[in-house]
Amino acid sequence: MRFLFITVLIFILPVFSFAQERQYSTTNREAIKEFALANQSLDESAYEEALALLQKALQADSNFVEAHAQLADLYRLMRQHAAAVTQYHKVIALNPEFNRSVYLKAGDEEIILAHYEQAEHYLEKYLTYPNLTAQNNALAEKLLADCKFSIVAIQHPVPFKPVNMGPEINTADDEYMPVATADESMLIFTRKINNNEDFYKSVKVDGKWQTATYLSDQINTPQYNEGAQSITQDGKFLFFTGCNRPDGLGHCDIYIAQKKGDDWGKPFDLSPPINTPGWEAQPSISADGKTLFFVSNRKGGYGGYDIWKSTLGDKGWGEPENLGPNINTMYDEQSPFIHPDDSTLYFSSNGWPGLGGRDLFVSRLGKDGKWQKPVNMGYPINTSGDENGLTLTAEGSHAFFSSNNLDGFGGYDIYTFELPENLRPNLVTYVKGKVNDAKDKHPLEADVEIIDLQKNEPVYEDNSDAENGSFLATLKSGKNYGLNISKSGYLFYSQNFSLIGHESKNPYDIAVLLEPIEIGNTVILNNIFFDTNSFELKTESLAELDKLVDFMTVNPTLKIEISGHTDNVGNDQSNQVLSENRAKSVYQYLISNKVDASRLVFKGYGETQPIAPNTTDEGRQKNRRTEFKIIAK
User: Fold this and answer.
1) Is 283 left (phi over 0), alpha (psi -120 to 50) or beta?
2) Is the distance from CB of 102 to CB of 136 less than 8 angstroms?
3) DSSP 3-state of 530
4) What is the pLDDT of residue 505?
5) How far, in Å, CA of 42 to CA of 53, rounded?
6) What angle do CA 236, 344, 320 make, to 5 degrees?
7) Which is nearest to 186 in space by CA: 220, 224, 216?
């Protein structure tokens, strides 16, 4: 799984570059004969045969420079890096000016072996030569930057204690690309068996991950590969990469599947403008489900694979936008993971300075709405090998990743580790609830909306699950939110909560009982706000008021009483007047939004109908409320 610069170098630098030369550093005929036979084997891609022939050539003349260089290139192609370095050393020792490309190749191989000081020496030597091509010069400068970064990074290691997730997750086969739901109740990952990639899942019971099981025949296929997935925070939608499928547009496309009870529905291709005849893969969906980050080699990028994003609008997914030069380079950026805070992006890259191969990086969204230049996550999280596929828990303190460089069960295993403080995202929490009928308690599929009260904008819009009535939404700290739940034939439910100064990682658990629309049933409008001793509606109330307008529009025969209530602070008369004026303010808003006045009554009850003791701040806050009651159907 290593996509180092070896692939790039095969195309930019001559490999097996001495096949046609006739002036050699040796006059030994046996050595020249074996060398020529090796070249023929290389032309036929018979690498093991070529290897044996080159070794025979060097047995005939150990100072045969061309044979050492050819053998070094062959070892490099076969990814036998230590052996390649040994041969490059011999070339340089025998003839330091034999071929300048040796220094670039040797420098790259030394980085793979984490020999950064030696690599730095070779790369600096290479850059002294005149008339280098622009591409090779840029590559050498990039590799040199890797060396300089790595030498410093190793001297300042970051905390890193990876923990294997155990035999419930890992096997002798390869397991990688893990993603978890926000409440960490389910982990989905890719397992590769006999070159076929499929999804598996593990659920957490009493804090322990259970033995992983095959995800679904609806998604997994015996003939195609499925992998590189992203799951919505509530676990209802799975975005994934499918390659070479007959319903696809290109080599690899992005698909989506919806959870149906205990199984999944049939996936479908996301189509243009996200998918193209090119290569689209490795999706990561934002917490609100409206922004999809993915990897593509489409036109308009900066080179190699770039990270793009598309936003979901009223007409579907919008035209993808490249994340720009603060994220993408002329090399490859892959495996994006957007944290539920919507402002911290993790990804892998072999273009930004790192320890070699693909390193893991983190970028944060600036106040100007642009992604800042990424920060390398440091050593030993990153190494001279490939690091890839990092995802985080919603609360942000722990990460999941896969590796074949640690003691495990075989192949790639999935690990978790505690993330250093400076690499963590902004704090988020989640709201988790269930919606049931108030009478017989059966689960309801209802509309769930969470609103940023300051902006009066929805940050979450979805339905509770039809099977069990559940919903889950991740939210940023530092804001005030309103929650509205509605369903045809029922009164709507409203609630509000503040995450300003919130540091707890515990979620909000809400059990919602929706009352049917019946005369006498009442709804507390928890998201109607007034300043102290004021009856002027605050802007944070608008979302709730509009919800009430919609409710009255959908139910055109209903008549309601709007009532205002206070606590017992102050005198009875002033409380009575204040409560009536607040009810009137709501009444007037509804009329101004085309609700017929004949369907409305407003009344103030002052402090006469408390729903909680007035002996605490919490109780008094509950008593200061606005309600509406059904008085006719």
Assistant:
1) beta
2) no
3) strand
4) 64
5) 10
6) 70
7) 216
Predicted pLDDT at 7: 39
pLDDT of residue 14: 53
Q: Whole-angstrom Cα distance, residue 153 to residue 378?
A: 6
Taking only the tens place, the pLDDT of each residue in 369-378 is 999 999 999 9
- Per-residue model confidence (pLDDT) at position 106: 98
546 φ/ψ angles, rounded to the nearest 5 degrees: -65, -35
Tens digits of residue pLDDT in 241-281: 999 888 888 889 999 999 888 899 999 999 999 999 989 99
Query: Can you give the C-alpha Rg of the chain in angstroms?
Result: 32
Residue 59: both structure tokens together: 């047995």
**Type of residue numbered 171:** T
Buried/exposed code over 62-83 (b: 16+ C-beta within 10 A; e: otherwise): eebbbbbbbbbbbbbbeeebeb
What number of H helices and E strands is found in the chain? 11, 34
Matching residue, tokens 């190749």: 105
Q: How far apart are CA 333 and CA 349, in angstroms?
A: 4
Give this prediction's pTM: 0.86
Q: Residue 305 corresponds to which tokens in the numbers above?
A: 């694979």
pLDDT at 560: 97
Closest by alpha carbon to 581, among 630, 537, 527, 523? Answer: 537
In sequence order, which residues have a C-beta less than 8 Å from that of residue 242 and are 6 or more positions away? 224, 225, 226, 248, 252, 253, 254, 255, 267, 269
**Distance (Å, whole) CA 293 – CA 497:** 30
Q: The tokens 């030498």 sit on which residue?
A: 151
- List of E strands, 7-116: none
Distance CA 548, CA 486 (A): 11
Mean pLDDT on 142-156: 97
Helix (H, G, I), strand (E, B) or coil at 436: strand
